[in-house]
Every structure is written in structure tokens, then in C-alpha cells.
Amino acid sequence: MKRNLLSQMKNEWRENIWIIIELAVVGLAIWALLSMLFFMSEGLFVPRGFSPDNVYTITTKYISADSPNFVQTNDSTSKHYNDDFKTLLGRLRENPNVEAVAVHWGNIPYNYNYSGFQLNVVDEPDSVMYYGNRRPGSPDIVDVLELNSLTGATRQQLKEMLARGEILISDNEEYVNQGRDPFSLKGKTVTMDNDSSRVYRIGDVVEKVRRNDYEQSYAGCIIFPLSEDDRIWGDIILRVKDGKSSQFKSDFKNDASLRKLRNVYLTDLESLMDLREKNQRSTEVDIRLFWVVIGFLLLTIFLGLLGSFWFRMQQRVGEIALRKVCGATRIQIFRRIITEGMVLLLCAVVLVSASVWPFMQDVSDMFGREWYVFLIIEMIAFALVAFGILLSLWYPARKAMSVEPAIAIKDQ
User: Fold this and answer.
1) Lowest CB count within 10 Å: 2, 61, 153, 188, which one?
2) Dihedral of CA 110/111/117/119: which sign?
3) What is the DSSP string of 104-125?
4) Higher pLDDT, 400 or 159
5) DSSP readout, 11-73?
6) 0.90 cut: is pTM over it?
7) What confidence score (pLDDT) does residue 1 get?
8) What pLDDT, on a 0 to 100 scale, did the predictor assign at position 40?
């Protein structure tokens, strides 16, 4: 039966070749769209490196000496700014709804401010540098963002490292791709951007804090310590206790002592989840658009295949009737029809693979992905096409097999 099927397909090669080309073009288009969709959303499947739930940001503002609202003090302006800022930090920490409070320099998650630095190991010259996004924060940033060590260190130990002036680095795919191991840097003394005045010790390796859930950057992350022992300035990020968000927002709104002290005031209370929504809105719109395009394409494919195979089945009503008369069961006939469709799809897969895979190494290098990623996406794309073929063949074949043999061959 298989030999007869192949002989029949060979005899109908002119008609089949156009269907093969149609399936190849359709499969290639779905492959490309699925690849783009994967590259845009693959960040959702890896750890983001922090927890945004119950985290709020607050902007620090200072009343200048030129303002009529400026409060004169006996201390220098910079000193009373700093002292009042520390007092406000203490009041926030004493609030019963707050779990942890930290100071940062504009490099919180879901903020595209990028301050990139490269680390150079002291006395170990190497052409490959560790490059990462610097995120300055006071030690409590560990508890606020719930940073996780990749070497087994506790959060308390991470806080102690920052308090000692050590820096934390993350895993770094770009560094790994150049043949280096980020974990080998633990305990090493490094300089930033070859500046010998900025020498630090690397305390530990943590999960990378990405700027959003979809970020595809391969660079690492550098948690740079801000000490609160002396002078400190910056904005505030804090974590409230579970279920206490509404209470804290009410306290912050109604208790002026939490928001202002002489010439320092805190404003723009905003949750990290709200920042997340703003930051990722355009990306999520693009992803939904891709899903709509893929869905529309699949529907168009299904209707096109349905039309093509419906026409083929109408031409084969007499053939199907003869097979039924000769003793073939409905299952055998349907299996033959499906096998023909799958053989045509296999030819389309071979055609696409022979055309694309010779250039796949260049494509893989351009997108920075392993070849097997594209192979998996290709398999998914043609699996969708196969499903469309099954749907397109089932109803026309069922209708053709429902015609009585006597009626189907009465004109032959």
C-alpha cells in the first residue's frame, strides 16, 4: 500500500510540488515568527534575580537654601541634609509595617538607567574583562530585593559583605561565553575601569538583577556598597510586610513625620510592580501583537490547506469509493490520506532545512543562541503545520468517505 501511495504521488508530482512549496513557505514563516517571539519572551523563563512583590520606591528631595521654605540650622547645609535624611530612614525602619529599608543610586529594577563598569583583577592582567551594570545600594538592599547567593551564602552574610565594603557580582553569560568563570572571581581584588583609586574585593556571586523580566542583556550585575556610617544620599527602596501595603501607604500619606524633616522630604511613593507595568508595557504589547499575527497566520494556513485538500478530496471521491468496494476500511483509507499529507510535509521540511541550515551557524552567532534552540523552534513550527494538515484533511476525507460507492462511481 505504501509503495502504491508513493507511485501515485510520483505520478501527481506537478500538483504535489506546489503544495510542498506552500507548506515550506508557511513553515518557514511560522519558524521565523516563533523565533522572534522566543527571543522577546525568553527572559520570563529564567530567574529575574529579585522579588518585586511588596517593594516600594521613594524619591528623596532637598529644599535649596534659595527657597523661602528653607529652614535655617546651625550646621552646614550638607551636614543637616545628611542628618535629617538618616533620621527619616530611621523613622521608616521603625514603622511596624516595614520589613527592610535601603538607599540606592537610581539603579533599581525596571529602571533603564545603565551605569556599566568593567572589573579588572589586580595583578592578573587579562584581555577578558567582567562587564556589568553597577547597582549601588546600602547593605539592606539584600533584604529589600531578596537577593540570592549562588554559592550558598545567607542574606545576612551578603549584607555583612556589603557593610565591609565588598562588592557582589552576578553570573554573567557574556563572561562565560568568552571562556571565563564568574565564580573564580570570588575573593579577588579588582579595580573599576582600570581606576587604581577604586579598589574593591569581590565578596560573592549572586543571581543577576535584570532591568526587567524580558531583558536579553548578557552583561552581569555589580552590587556596589553604600555605607550609611558616614555621609549617605540617594533615593529609598523598601519592602513592606506581607499584607501590610495598604497600611503603610496610609501611614506615609497621613504621617508627615515619615515624609518630611526640615529641608528634606520624601515623595513619589510607587510600588515596584507599578514600575514593572510601565517599563514592560511596550514589550508586552509587541508580544501580544506577535501572538495575534501567529494566530491569524495559523487560521489563514488552516483555511488555505482546507481549500486545497477539499479540492483534492473531491477529485478522489471515485477512487475512495473503489477502495471501499475492494474491501478497504474507513480507517485504512483515512490512514492513507493522512500519510500522503505527512509525506508532503516531510518534503517541505527537507526543502526548508536544506535551504536554511547551511547558514544557521551565522544566524546562531548573530543572535547569540545555540543551534539546537533553532532546531527545537523549527520542530514546533512544523508540528503546528502538521496539526493544520490533520484538521484540513479530517473533514473533507470524512465527507468523501460518506458517499455511497454506487453514487460515487455511477458516471465512471
Assistant:
1) 2
2) negative
3) ESS--TT-----EEEEEETT--
4) 159
5) HTHHHHHHHHHHHHHHHHHHHHHHHHHHHHHGGGGS--SS--TTEEEEEEEE--TTSTTPPP-
6) no
7) 44
8) 78
